[in-house]
Amino acid sequence: MSPADADPHAIEIHLDKLLAEHGMTLTELAERVGVTIANLSVLKNGRAKAIRFSTLTRLCEVLDCQPGDLLTHRKP
Questions:
Q1: Using the 8-state DSSP alphabet, how is residue 72 labeled?
Q2: What separation in angstroms does the CA of 44 have from each of 2, 3, 16, 24?
Q3: Alpha helices, DSSP H only, in the chain?
Q4: Does residue 10 contact residue 41 with C-beta atoms inside 8 Å?
Q5: Domain residue spans in the chain?
Q6: CATH number of 11-64
Q7: Residue closest to 55 by CA, chosen among 20, 7, 15, 9
Q8: What is the pLDDT of residues 14-61, one digit of tens each?
Q9: Which one, of 53, 61, 64, 52, lies nearest residue 33 by Cα?
Q10: How far apart are CA 69 and CA 15, in angstroms?
Q11: How far is Cα 45 from Cα 47, in angstroms, rounded to an integer?
């Protein structure tokens, strides 16, 4: 496998779990955080290449969680 084929990162996003725990839809979260549904969907599906600290802060505030509840590092 070439380096280009390798997964670009090993960060897992647990947005589905947190949404379920809070009984919240992606649409509601997007409105409360102030980002588009499309951007949250990219994050939720693990396709995001970056996240702004301001967005991470709002996600943590709205979901009443810590960054480590939302993101974890997947070991090889």
A1: E
A2: 26, 24, 7, 14
A3: 15-22, 26-33, 37-44, 53-63, 67-70
A4: no
A5: 11-64
A6: 1.10.260.40
A7: 15
A8: 999 999 999 999 999 999 999 999 999 999 999 999 999 999 999 999
A9: 61
A10: 9
A11: 6
